[in-house]
């Protein structure tokens, strides 16, 4: 089980990313538009830099919804490999059969 602080920090980042997504996209569009004057594009870059760092989508990290573990994460199921194995062994996942040899 991951620390509660790490799980809460990740939730906070998700909220910030959702909150600033539209503003960030608009500023990026302005900054990358070649038809605009250089000064205007530079101002857009400065405004983009003033936004909170945690509002960037690249700072998000996938975590297991059950345990909060950041590694070995399956995107389709939103859980990690250990939780997947436990649920599969317990018969909680339809179509998943325990394998042993």
From TrEMBL:
<keyword id="KW-0689">Ribosomal protein</keyword>
<dbReference type="InterPro" id="IPR023036">
    <property type="entry name" value="Ribosomal_uS14_bac/plastid"/>
</dbReference>
<protein>
    <recommendedName>
        <fullName>Small ribosomal subunit protein uS14</fullName>
    </recommendedName>
</protein>
<dbReference type="GO" id="GO:0003735">
    <property type="term" value="F:structural constituent of ribosome"/>
</dbReference>
<comment type="function">
    <text>Binds 16S rRNA, required for the assembly of 30S particles and may also be responsible for determining the conformation of the 16S rRNA at the A site.</text>
</comment>
<dbReference type="Pfam" id="PF00253">
    <property type="entry name" value="Ribosomal_S14"/>
</dbReference>
<keyword id="KW-0694">RNA-binding</keyword>
<dbReference type="GO" id="GO:0019843">
    <property type="term" value="F:rRNA binding"/>
</dbReference>
<comment type="subunit">
    <text>Part of the 30S ribosomal subunit. Contacts proteins S3 and S10.</text>
</comment>
<dbReference type="GO" id="GO:0015935">
    <property type="term" value="C:small ribosomal subunit"/>
</dbReference>
<keyword id="KW-0699">rRNA-binding</keyword>
<dbReference type="InterPro" id="IPR001209">
    <property type="entry name" value="Ribosomal_uS14"/>
</dbReference>
<comment type="similarity">
    <text>Belongs to the universal ribosomal protein uS14 family.</text>
</comment>
<dbReference type="GO" id="GO:0005737">
    <property type="term" value="C:cytoplasm"/>
</dbReference>
<dbReference type="GO" id="GO:0006412">
    <property type="term" value="P:translation"/>
</dbReference>
<keyword id="KW-0687">Ribonucleoprotein</keyword>
